[in-house]
Structure prediction request, 375 residues.
Amino acid sequence: MILILEPNTDHQGHAYRQLMDYLAKLPNIKTRVHQEVGTQQILTEIYLVGDTAALSVEDMQSLPTVERVVRVSQEYRILGRHRDATRGTAFEYNGVTFSQDHLHVFAGLCAVDNPEHVEMMLQALQDNGQVCTRMGAYKPRTSPYAFQGHGKNCLPYVFELAGKYGIKVVAMEITHENHVQEIRAALEQTGHPTGVMLQIGTRNTQNFELLKAVGRQQDMPVLLKRGFGITLEESLNAAEYLASEGNRKVIFGLRGMKSNMGDPHRNFVDFAHVPVVKRLTRMPVCIDPSHSVGTRDRAPDNILDVMHVTAQGVIAGANMILVDFHPAPEKALVDGPQALRLSELALFLQDVAIARNAYEQRRALALEAMQKNNS
Ligand code: PEP
Ligand code: MN
Prediction:
């Protein structure tokens, strides 16, 4: 059960203390307080864990400072919707708002190779009005002999260049909790020219100790990718690990499933699950068309498969697109065969805008139909 308190409830105030004293006396119930500091207001939610079936929603609702009570119906206590459409999905990070209604494109390098390519990429993004990117410094590779990423050595120039080109958020995969400290140190050393969204890759979706460590920090949001060989429910529970440790600025990423059913694509595209994740949870949903498709193949209609599946995700309501670009894909150290060229960025963004527009029209149409049915 979740008690949602009135906005800006003072934790030193009399009413709040009265509430906490009351909750402390409930038998077999533990409380966990979560505070979300937004730009406009501070929100407090109290999670009641234990024998909550014995509690009545009406009684809880009448307690001091309690605005609303939500009975938890599913596993995902914090991130779940619990059939409550009114709880917000938005969070803000470094001036960018993420929610189930927004859409942001994170085009960039799968792996950072050198400062020249980083700068060319970022310049292209700025020229196209983009404020987010992806940059891989720590690369989990199938072979131990493959390039593992430049790691912390490339962070200072990546962050400085990001700042120079007006990038607000860099999505960056980490594979070990030490990487969080390295990123934080590099941001400090360079004077915080940009922000970082920590990415947990598909190979680490169920690395619970990593999830707990990343969940304990609340300064950076997290993009958690779905595990490529586990159920959706298992991956959503992995996201809940982050939230249960305190970080709810979580975006859920679909990137295709490992199954030869998807051949000749690298993975079986699972973007039909965009609306499913939005129904089950309050997380904004990201799609990664590059790691799903894995090639630059195109259909007879001249549209690249990467762009086809991007449009499929966006028309289904995706909120973020993580996509590989490279100034010279043939020279890329990782995943060159799936990278789009900088000359294709404007086209890609135009194609995304068409799909987004279609999604917005579909949503308006559905709303209209529902209102007619109800009247
Ligand atoms: C990536 O985004 O660079 C990556 C390795 O993705 P995934 O974890 O989905 O394979
Ligand atoms: Mn990659």
Notes: The chain has a mean pLDDT of 95. Residues 2-72 form a domain with the Alpha-Beta Plaits fold (CATH 3.30.70.1140).
